[in-house]
Amino acid sequence: MRKLLLASLAVVALAIYPLLVRNRFFLHLSIMVLLYALLGTSWNLLGGYTGQISFGHAAFFGTGAYASTILLLRFGISPWLGMFAGALLALLLSLPLGWLTFRLRGPYFALSTLAFAEIVRVIVYNWDTLTGGGDGLNILTDLGGVVRFYYIILALAVAGFLVMRVCVRSRWGYFLNAIREDEDAAEALGVPATRMKVIALAVSAFFVALGGSFFASYQLYINPDLVYESQISIQMIVVTIVGGIGTLEGPAVGALIIVPLSEYFRSLSPVANPLIYGLFIVIFMLFLPEGIVSGVRQLLTRPKAAASEKQERVSAKA
Amino acid sequence: MKFIPYIQATVNGLLVGSLYSVIAMGLTIIFGVMRIINMAHGELIMLGMYAAFWAFTLLKLGQMAALLISLPLFLVLGAALYGGVVNRVERRAGEMGTLLVTAGLSYLVANAAQLVWKANYRSLPSALTTRSLFLGGISLNYSLLWAFVAAVMLTAVTYLFLIYTDPGRAIRATAQDREAAALMGVRIHRINMLAFALGTALAGMAGVLLTPVFYVYPYVGRVFLVKAFVVVVLGGMGSILGAWLGGLLFGVVESVASMFIPSGYRDALGLVVFLLVLLFKPSGLFGRSRV
Prior knowledge:
The structure holds two protein chains of two kinds.
Chain A lengths: L1 H19 L3 H26 L8 H18 L3 H24 L5 H19 L1 H4 L5 E2 L7 H24 L1 H11 L1 H6 L4 H27 L1 E2 L1 H4 L2 H14 L6 H19 L3 H16 L3 H11 L1 H15 L1
Antiparallel strand pairs in A: 1-2
Chain B lengths: L3 H31 L6 H17 L5 H55 L8 H4 L2 E4 L2 E4 H23 L1 H11 L1 H6 L4 H23 L9 H16 L4 H18 L11 H12 L11
Antiparallel strand pairs in B: 1-2
Helix pairs in contact in B: 1-5, 1-6, 1-8, 1-9, 1-10, 2-3, 2-8, 2-9, 3-8, 5-6, 5-8, 6-8, 9-10, 9-11
């Protein structure tokens, strides 16, 4: 009950925030935080809850961005519809990849994601009659002010969060967890692991593509280097790890910390900025692999219990 | 003489492929022993390339000298990476953790290189790199030929080391069955470290050998990492011999296919090979199924 109250308070606060803050830069920053909260949350369903690490989610982000933009520019279809068309396209794209790599035992999926993202980028880059190639695509119509986009991404992020919450608490969510912990055991208990993983990838791709479409409509300009860049994939991973991989709130918390920091470092030195992401991954994996949310939770609730649990784990290992 | 271009492409593919073999062997040894995919493998190659580049241009060293100097450096680097980062993360966060932390390392090192060495494409003076030997209409680039010879020697030494020495046997035993090896008195932690150091050294030395024939730039590691993945899957994950043959085969396929594929799509070839292997022979062309 208290949790529900807190959550609705947070949403209300986020909803009235643009009425109080009229500074364009802060609104832009908040939009990026919410966008990365959405991306991280989607990545987390596959990476955190299912244990399947993707290094190529930029492929879905870029596909969403390009699909809605092309539909708008070529056919005059509103991004409201184009967004979902793009998300569906990304979902379809994820199916053969998932089916091919998830059938097999072993890290084939993680291995293939890098090359997958690269091939999608290469196709978009070379298919210039449709995509404008390296020049990218310009949206010349004004799609609305920054406040409007703030509310759109807020709605998307909240919707993404709620869907993930329903997912991970469902029977299916427990299946995913079981697969992450021990795939053999899960299959022995009758969990169709391959199909579950394929669906997790599809859902994750769908929501990441929604974010991509949003990004394109918000920025009014896209090119392959902007939306298929590996940095996008890395940023989703960073916000999730920093916040807490495999926790519901983690990616949002991570985005709240990482995105403003990243903007700050960008203002210091554009070259050093991406370096920070790598550094954050390494530092967090070394010293706080469970992320801030779990770390704080452990500190707050039961420091003693956590300590004794650690003790147990150590003795169990010995 | 219609076939000359094809023979030329095949020969070039074999020469370059021998370097892919060295890279893939490094990756597959680490994977075979520890079930860790080293996402930073490409950056180790990149570091080897820069090391060789500075050794050639600033210190005026020859290729053999650069290779011999880089060997101990990369062995130490690999051991340090394992002891300082990979092992610690693996103990707390498992396989997923090592995948993520090596990816973080990869991104960190590539961008640090970008910051320090700038994004310039560097290459050695062409006088050193473009001399060729002609054999019946086929031209053999001297640098590439030397790299091929060195790569074959490295492959042979690594193979002999794994087959005939005690540490090599311990590595193979650990790869086959960790627990059984431990029960037979193999010190797993040391063997892990050795395997990681060996894999790192192979990546670094491949980088040294690649320097005269490829551009050197901070993000070059990504290119070779993806190729190494393709080769490792092609040869069967964890299989040393598979990595060697897979490297040669992929080099030839890449070189010959690029005569037919529009240049823009050349980079996509790797994934096509990758997916075809997964579709038809997931255990790799030369591997036993580990499933």
